[in-house]
Amino acid sequence: MWKLADIEVKSRLILGTAQYSSPEILCQSIVSAGAEVVTASLRRQHPSTQGGQSFWDIVKRCQVRILPNTAHCRSAKEAILTAHLARELFQTNWIKLEVIGDEASLAPDPFELVEAARTLCREGFEVFPYTTEDVVTAERLLHAGCRILMPWASPIGTGQGLIRPESLSQLRSRFPQATLIVDAGIGRPSHAAQAMEMGFDAVLLNSAVALASNSAQMALAFAQSIESGRRAFEAGLMPKRSCAMASTPIDGHPFATGMSS
Amino acid sequence: MKLVVNGKECIIRERHLGSALRELSLDATYAAVAVNWKCVPKNEWESLQLEEDDRVEILVPQAGG
């Protein structure tokens, strides 16, 4: 068990709920992943839809905690209002704070993000900010009251994995007390394992599972890789060496000449 | 009275938010509502009086990443 914003959870995989081929496949994937937290969004009500009931039914059936997001918001003002509406709708003070600053890369706007985070933290929200690996932004977010940071691995939906692993690793080293969750850009279970081996606390992903040929199977693969990566981190990975070093002891080797080889 | 509901202009007779939502035939069972950039808690829907040109946003849950 570990603590995510004061809540004890077992799984270190937070699953996005979009893009699944059917609600049934989504449910199967949540169960298969053993996910206890899933993300959700808000959209404008339209007379032709069921008013969101179908999504509620899925969430209730899976008995998971909801992490609402502020997807597609482009200013602190939009994100703050969306967070207020999400709190009203989902009855949670958790908010995945997304403030997009660039349409092409879907990179966050650090200025609007920090401003929104400051306001929402002051209002009692538990803010999960979607950010980059930038250390200064991370520092500002923590100073604004965030206890959790969610740096991207690579741009949303690209599946490129950790494109700047050194920077992510430095982020982990710089902020040992913060809960760090890699969010966005994870395409393969090995990417998730890599993040977990660095000491990240959890992984949030969506497309890699939703767009797999067999989503439930992929969800399980991710859950196992995340658990494996975490176990490796806790076990203590050996340091990298630049030179080869024999693992079999040389002492007592019958043909030793005294020369090293 | 003219309102802008979810980005579209519409004319309604009702003056209060709760009754306006019913007049619009929107299923608001699982909805959150903002009026003029302010979230309105559900327990205030019936008492909140709307004004001409108010901007009403009605949001429902959906899947998201």
Short description:
The complex is a heterodimer of chains A (261) and B (65). Chain A has 261 residues and is of the alpha/beta class. Chain A has nine helices and ten strands.
> What is the beta-strand fraction of chain B?
35-45%
Helix residue percentage of chain A:
25-40%
How many domains make up the 3D coordinates of chain B?
1
Number of discrete helical segments of chain B = 1
CATH superfamily of chain B: Beta-grasp domain
Which structural category do the helix and sheet elements of chain B fall into?
mainly beta
Percentage of β-strand residues of chain A: 15-25%
Main beta sheet strand tally, sense and closure of chain B: 5 strands, mixed
For the biggest β-sheet of chain A, the strand order reads 5-4-3-10-9-8-7-6
Report the top-level CATH class of chain A. Answer: Alpha Beta
Look up the CATH topology of chain A: TIM Barrel
- Over all CA atoms, what is the radius of gyration of chain B? 11 Å
Give the CATH class of chain B: Alpha Beta
The whole-number mean of residue pLDDT values of chain A reads: 94
Number of domain units of chain A = 1
Question: How many individual helices of chain A?
Answer: 9
**Architecture (CATH level 2) name of chain B:** Roll
Uncertain regions of chain B: pLDDT < 50 for 5+ in a row? Answer: none
The interface involving the most residues is between: A-B, 38 and 27 residues
Morphology call of chain A: globular
